[in-house]
Amino acid sequence: MSKLVVFSFLGGDLNQGFPVVTAQLWCHDEFVPVKLTGSLPPAPELSELYRRWQLLYAAVHQRLGRNHRIKVYSQDITNISINDFDEVCQQLQANINAWLKFESFQNIERQLRTLLSPNDEIRVIIETNIALLHRLPWHLWHFFEDYPKAELALSNHEYESPKLLQKSPTGQVKILAILGNRVGIDIDKDASALQGLTDGKTTFLIEPTRQTLDEYLWNHDWDILFFAGHSTSLTDGEIGEIFINQTETLAISQLKNALKAAIRRGLQLAIFNSCDGIGLGRNLADLNIPQMIVMREGVPDFIAQEFLKNFLTAFANSKPFYLAVREARERLQGLENEFPCASWLPVIYQNPTTVPTTWQELCGNFANTKFVGEVSTKSKIATPKLKLWTVLLSTLIAAISTLGLRYLGIFEKIELQSFDQVLRLRPQEEPDPRLIIVEITEKDIQSRQETTKGMKSISDSTLAKLLNKIQKYQPRVIGLDIYRDLADPSNKSNPIQLPTELNKDNVVVVCKSRDSKYDPQGVKPPKNVPIERQGFTDAIQDPDGIIRRQILMMAQEPSSTCTTPYSLSLQLAIRYLSYENIKPKFNEDYIQFGSKVFKRLKSGRSGAYQQGIDLGGNQILVNYRNTDYQRVSLNDVLNDKFDRKSLKDKVVIVGVTANTVSDTWSTLYSTAQQDYQEISGIFIQAQMVSQVLSAVLDQRPILWVLPYWGDILWICGWSVVGSLIIWRIRLLSHKGYTIFVTVVTLYGVCAIALLKQGLWLPFIPSAFAVVASGVVIVLIQRRQEFFTISQPLVE
């Protein structure tokens, strides 16, 4: 939780004291800050003590032979010791804390401590126009020891919100690096640190002229301005100057217009990795730059290099700006045996109207500045970083919601349609060479003009002649997909009788099961045909009227006129495969031929079937062959107008395709035709027989679904994967594309699994979960943006 504390020192100075000191505490859930008021007494000794510390600091480093990024002038103190310097450091720390323990100021601190937690990220801004207060090492205040995630920044009294232009995202942090006068110092390692940034694009200006620097600031968009070289502060910190080359020195005022233009175009951060930067910070603050890092005194080369390396590492690895500075600053303490007070040097300057930027936002290359009483109008912005647990929780909610909707059958219709659509992507297949259909067409019926009993398509005598003719050409098995529950009056003069033909071992007849709900009567098999050569032809339609499932086996009702437990298609497949020495193995949950296992759809819920679907018996999905079948008409067979070899060793299915006999059904290919067309039931039977034979003999895929728990893991897995990918995308404008690409990838995976392996994966609910979790993450991030914008000063 990020919070901001702004201390304002109004009127007075160290010699007179500060009669009014205010503290404003801004929290993320409050539109109005908590305001506290106190005062501080005169502390002239602080002024003298700091001047002495400043002189000793410069003398110590000069004596130790350190290369500083400042022109070293003669010092007032020439005879000093490290012990003297350490004593002054301790005195300065003690005096600062003693001064801040003044009772009136302590009232402010005590109230702040009741409102702050040690785990809070706290930005503390000291707001004053007194240069000496900017130089004081405020980080020595005991408050910062008790709040490890607090860091100090400085600000002038007068500031306003920078006016920013909208920029298009580039995905990289654009850095302008000025490498100025390097006489006596090493700044090449600074350049190496910048070049090592993965998401950074650094443009180097090496000892540029004023005109060149001015043109680069005016004509290009920059996120970070970096300077390494010599610099100094003049007139007690009122003016800052940088040495851009060996002959030119520039004050900030001399770059005022160019810097204002750069800030307006999106410059977010300036880093002056050079000496004595208080004047630079104060001058740039007057231009309303969002934030800066400067060195308050002379800085040795090695310290400047180490700070930059550690800061960039932390900042580019998603650490908040203030915490990255604090970490990099505190790591310098380990070097203070050789470089005294190294951790005192880095300091932040902050425009209080803006929120510190993050590396992710800079990669979006936009202005993330939020203003008091103003809402940013930027649309192409990088989103705030969510914590992993928030992502996982939102993903869990989206996944559970998706599973709940699927449980209620919301996705069932569209899942079935997507299943059809993927199967229709397959190229047209060759006809199954093992099957041939003998069809009784409308022309066959009309041409014969036979008198039949009931609603028969052809007479028993004609059917007997047909079967007798077919048997002459040695088929393996004949399936009679014509009901013959009633016999015609016998004609003993006819040498070919239907009962005789039906009692041949390779003929399978059909019956229809009795169903107390849908068909209370059923259809009996022909008389005297044993149950071993009977098969039911019950068809199952999905709610949209399409046949996608077949029943291989089922237990019949005790009162049913059709008692066989096997379907016609299974009976024909079993008999054909027996010639290949392949015998079936029956189990409650599957039927096995050799190594091929046909697992039934589980009753209750299986795949897309979630609500109101009867999955009783041994049902499997129909793997339609996208082709027509070899066929010959009744008249052609009886008149020998066909290839006689085409029936040998085949599965021959005899059935009616005439329009006057209502036995047509819808398949997944019916909806794809311009004129919706149903097909005759005999072709459905052929598809079902072919499916079994092709799977066993040709290794054609068997369609199957995951168990119920497998579907749950699949949907939840994609929800997690999708949300994590979307979470890692930095730019809001790219998240929509990412969701789209993820769904397309998911579709590709599901299509390949179905077409190559026969596995029907739940695409629609998985895609819904990906979109839902992605939208939830985006909404949460947008909500964070809203609070960030509408509650300025808080990160």
Uncertain stretches of 5 or more adjacent residues: 71-76, 365-384, 786-795
For this entry, what is the oligomeric state of its chains? single chain
Instruction: Compute the number of helices.
Output: 23
Based on Cα principal axes, name the global outline.
rod-shaped
Portion of residues in helices?
25-40%
Strand content: 15-25%
Report the C-alpha radius of gyration, rounded: 43 Å
What is the SS-derived class? alpha/beta
Major sheet: order of its strands?
3-2-1-4-5-14-13-12-8-6-7
Can you offer a commentary on this structure?
The chain is of the alpha/beta class and 795 residues long. The protein contains 23 helices and 29 strands. The strands form seven sheets. An eleven-stranded mixed β-sheet has the order 3-2-1-4-5-14-13-12-8-6-7, sandwiched between helices. Strands 18-17-16-25-15-24 form a six-stranded parallel β-sheet. Helix 9 links the parallel strand 12 (269-273) and strand 13 (291-295). Helix 6 (188-195) packs parallel to helix 10, helix 7 packs parallel to helix 8 and helix 22 (732-757) packs antiparallel against helix 23 (763-790).
